[in-house]
Amino acid sequence: xxxxxxxxxxxxxxxxxxxxxxxxxxxxCFGVAPDGLAWLIDADRSHRLQRLMQTVLSVFELxxxxxxxxxxxxxxxxxxxxxxxxxHEADVDGLGARRxxxxxxxxxxxxxxxxxxxxxEQSGPPPQHAPPVDTMGGGGAITNVGALAVGEQDEQMVxxxxxxxxxxxxxxxxxxxxxxxxxDAQTFSASVHTRDRALRVPREPFRPLVFESLLGLEGVEAxxxxxxxxxxxxxxxxxxxxxxxxxxHHSPYGGDLSFAVPRLSLLRALVAVARDVAKLHARGLxxxxxxxxxxxxxADGPISFDSLDVKAGxxxxxxxxxxxxPEQIVGQPVEPHTxxxxxxxxxxxxxxxxxxxxxxxxxxxIGGGDSRRVNLLKGEGVFIDIxxxxxxxKWQLAWQELLGRCIAYDRTRRPEHAGAFADALEALxxxxxxxxxxxxxxxxxxxxxxxxxxxxxxxGAMTFARLVSD
Length: 470
Description:
By secondary structure, the protein is of the alpha+beta class. Helix content is 31%, strand content 28%. The chain has helices at residues 19-22, 46-60, 70-85, 107-111, 115-120, 145-151, 155-169, 238-249, 263-282, 326-329, 336-350, 393-406, 418-431, and strands at 2-4, 25-32, 38-44, 87-90, 98-106, 140-142, 171-177, 186-192, 203-208, 221-226, 229-234, 255-262, 285-286, 295-298, 301-304, 310-311, 318-320, 354-367, 370-383, 437-440, 446-449, 464-469. 41% of the residues are buried.
């Protein structure tokens, strides 16, 4: 859950996005957070710039920056400052090059885990500072297809695995196309390769940032607590939500905020995701990396992203092991029912279903001379405990039947494609709806009070916003 700090005398002031190129510290609005508050980024390079200036003064054996040669001071205060801020020129939309800001932290660490990941995997908050660059990034890893390719001396497949390793070493960073004073900034994600991380040089593809929204899910409530008291507010009640945050803000010690999301809304969202994936299947492609971290509960409807776009009948070179089908992990050809396994496993988690069956271990190479031990479940079915619930035996058997088929080790038992899964799940949800809610921690920045007259704040009237630090 997010902590709401106790009231202080100060407010955050929001600047136009152009300040990202003109100041060593700027707080700008780059979009709308999942709870509907303005989303701010605090880009602070002032301490680094000060250390740089002190180092140069020491080298020149001077004590005052005004004593530096003009060219040196200009280079530090302008050229080096801009480079330190991560400001570059890029053509983001085919309309010509313009100034863009590229975040120091990776997008996933800056914005937090996806909403579905926070709900299903109970992911913790993103680290305040980006960790050392890892080999693969995220939950993805190279599948056993690499070992099979080496064993069979398949040169093309070995090259495909190596390309997959290189592509996954390129990290996605937040990129803001700077607008003039009073103008709205456009927000993208850009690829930054490991070897470019010092200056964060952006590479294509540039993708418009898709914002997630809890407001698009029916029945979501904000859960607040302060001074030993807890209460809930419907998130669609915008005035009530802001008043509740204000109430916590005025508590002597602040308080906490999280969200209660109905299971029914989440399963309906998963149906929409499956219909989105079905479009890939209709083109003879397999997503290959369906996982909570690769699904966005977007404002315009849930979508999947970071698809591997594997041709049906081919092995996939990468996967998120925790959610991948057995055949994908061991490097066998994938088909649309490979994606159905991942969709079914997510649905099972949402209703607290427990897959069961024989478990074996595989050693899988993941690049860089490293390997990983993977537990491979030969799924036989899914069990749902209905004791101490209001569910009937009929409800239990219906859910166990569909979910058991979806995660079956025998792929021929699964629905043959995502469209068939969507139809079956939609009918099941309508006939046997699930009850209760799941918790979403809301790890997408800290709720902070902002100055209502800030020039860079949309509308100029919001009292609170979500702040992330870069």
